[in-house]
Design goal:
oxidoreductase, alpha/beta, NAD(P)-bd_dom_sf, acylglycerone-phosphate reductase (NADP+) activity, seven-stranded parallel beta sheet, NAD(P)-binding protein, about 45% helix, NADP, Rossmann fold
């Protein structure tokens, strides 16, 4: 057992290079935390190990893996954990009319049930430390996100879960915060897997296939860098602020305003105009129907 007396600890899930988790791990380390960076494969986070961070193999979709990681961290820290950042996530871009059930289930298993597993098994450590749970949410779970309905649903469910969890953990002085994340430049936002967004020939959307495949191609424009996002989140984590939702990332504040003060109909119109290609898609499909 290697216990660092007085040094706060943080565990972050989903720390592969190019994403939010990787940047958060580096920033927590920079601020003096004992960081446990996790990923399914240790070779994917070797660079963090080389920088002096402790790395742990962890698959949030596997009960055995999560329980083993919790036991391992408890042994290393003497049974405490100050900050748990549930960041591991999986995207899924597809039309709701022809989605793949197994892909949708995998997204929910990572984005929602993975968080639930982590909280369940790391709760004793967090209670002992009177720690913080930071769940990386997304503004996509609040606004209409055409052709990302399943991903958005995973995040909407996560937000609801976090709100209830916050009250459940309150008697133990464990703080739960949903990080309502706007635009951040990550591998997920800049380069979706080749198979995603592909409209098959038998799809209702085939007349607008090319336009749909290019939707969100501008989503990384002016997005916040992972390093800047991490700097702000770690600063928040070290503060005494205790809010249910913490908004950060490109357009996060604007979306807070719109979802707070505008009607759903008005919000729908704004998003329809903001997502590149939506108007053209509708024109192409209506034209194909009338021809």
């Amino acid at each position: 057992m290697v216990v660092s007396v007085g040094q706060k600890s943080a565990l972050i899930t989903g720390c592969t290079a190019g994403g939010i988790g990787h940047a958060l791990a580096l920033e927590f380390h920079k601020q003096g935390f004992r960081v446990f960076a996790t990923a399914r494969r240790l070779d994917a986070i070797q660079d963090l190990h080389d920088k002096g961070l402790e790395t742990v193999a962890l698959d949030v979709t596997d009960d055995t893996s999560v329980k083993a990681a919790a036991a391992h961290i408890a042994e290393l820290t003497g049974g405490t954990l100050d900050v748990l950042v549930n960041n591991a996530g999986q995207g899924y871009r597809e039309a709701a009319t022809h989605f793949d059930v197994s892909r949708a289930q995998a997204a929910f298993d990572t984005n929602l049930f993975g968080v639930m597993r982590m909280v369940r098994d790391f709760a004793p450590l967090l209670v002992n430390a009177k720690g913080k749970i930071l769940n990386v949410g997304s503004v996509a779970g609040l606004i209409p996100s055409p052709f990302r309905s399943i991903y958005s649903a995973t995040k909407a469910a996560l937000h609801s879960y976090g709100d209830s969890l916050r009250l459940e953990m309150k008697p133990f002085d464990v703080t739960v915060v949903t990080l309502m994340t706007g635009g951040v430049t990550t591998k997920m936002s800049t380069k979706p897997p080749p198979s995603e967004g592909i409209i098959p020939p038998d799809s209702l959307y085939w007349p607008a296939a090319k336009v749909i495949n290019d939707l969100y191609s501008n989503q990384a424009d002016n997005a916040m860098s992972p390093a800047e996002y991490a700097r702000r989140i770690v600063s928040f984590a070290q503060s005494s602020k205790n809010v249910p939702w913490f908004w950060e990332g490109n357009f996060a504040t604007a979306i807070w305003f719109m979802t707070t003060f505008l009607s759903k109909k008005a919000l729908e119109g704004i998003i329809g105009r903001a997502v590149k290609g939506m108007a053209e898609m509708e024109t192409l499909i209506r034209g194909a129907k009338s021809s």
